[in-house]
Design brief:
This protein has no helices and 11 strands. By secondary structure, the chain is mostly beta strands.
Length: 206
């Protein structure tokens, strides 16, 4: 009984040409200075969230929430306007710190990273079409994350807010605000660690 074997060899080039990486020509900080009114954070095209750092100070230079010459970060919120000249949004602000409570940024489209030098905390932000993801890498220290639903800058102000701890890994709530336009923002936050580190900002409206 004879057995015939047929070997087929695919013709492939010896060295596959690598695709051009055009991201090396992109500067995500364009517009974050000289009243460009843009922010450097993470978002996807037509997405519902825009995660980015906020300097925490009002004024025309910080209409988008971020001004490159500033050296402070007051929080990382989930909504921003880019290039509009309207000071609004900045909803659902988180701020990781080490206690007692007292920049080297690298953004790229759907990813933003910054080292909070005062606390030695590495912050990473990314976004999908409908949600934002934040990751904090803490040093060995007692740490907290502030959730500030009363935070408002420029034209924005808080009408009402609510937060509830559902279980040891989940919080939910909302923030209703008014500014350039009215906004209702709802939260469902899942965390990878027990919520004992979460400090909820309960400052009353003035």
């Amino acid at each position: 009984m004879a057995v015939s074997l047929l070997a087929l060899a695919a013709c492939t080039p010896e060295k596959q040409q690598e695709a051009d990486d055009y991201t090396q020509y992109v500067n995500p900080f364009i517009g974050t200075d000289f009243t460009g009114n843009t922010y450097p954070g993470a978002q996807v095209p037509f997405g519902m969230v825009q995660l980015s750092p906020d300097n925490g100070l009002p004024g025309w230079d910080r209409i988008s929430g971020y001004f490159y010459p500033d050296t402070t970060i007051a929080g990382f919120s989930h909504t921003h306007l880019s290039g509009t000249g309207a000071g609004d949004l900045y909803d659902i602000s988180f701020m990781p710190v080490t206690r007692p409570y007292k920049e080297a940024p690298a953004p790229l489209g759907v990813y933003y990273r910054v080292l909070l030098k005062d606390y030695n905390i590495n912050v990473e932000l990314t976004a999908t079409e409908r949600c934002g993801i934040q990751r904090y890498t803490f040093p060995k220290a007692e740490a907290s994350v502030f959730l500030n639903l009363k935070k408002a800058m420029n034209w924005d102000f808080t009408l009402d807010s609510y937060i509830e701890v559902v279980d040891s890994m989940t919080i939910r709530g909302y923030r209703f605000s008014q500014g350039w336009s009215p906004l209702s923002m709802f939260i469902l936050r899942l965390v990878s660690r027990n919520l004992s580190w979460l400090a909820i900002w309960t400052q009353l409206l003035s």
